[in-house]
Amino acid sequence: MSVTLPPDYRPSEDEPFMNEKMREYFRQKLLRWKEVLLRESSETLENLQDGGISEADIADRASLETDRSLELRTRDRERKLISKIDAALERIENGSYGYCEDTEEPISLGRLEARPIATLSIEAQERHERLERTQRDDQ
Fold it and tell me: Contacts from 91-98 at CB under 8 Å and sequence distance 24+?
């Protein structure tokens, strides 16, 4: 894509849904988010490689282990998030980005701003969650 966005551009309900500018806006937003996650992941790896557990006090060692475990779980969630960002970038490329997987209707701009990796409209997401709860309750 070779669209140049004005610095103050924000998608609007007044323009055609998922036009070139809008797609570029979300593409850049997703790429920035991915960059931040990758940077944080890299910093975590450096911290883990730098710091061996040399705490003599058992409570300090346990605390450090708990912190590391939490950090690794966070990075694992972020790794999964990067995968979802990559899938969203692929949807931008193939033209399906911004449309609900269930209904094929446009996902609201507000939802995409808040959760640019969204694949379901709010209504479809709520339906999906209700169905999940019902299935969980039946087990």
Answer: 91/119, 92/23, 92/26, 92/27, 92/30, 95/18, 97/18, 97/23, 97/26, 98/17, 98/18, 98/22, 98/23, 98/26
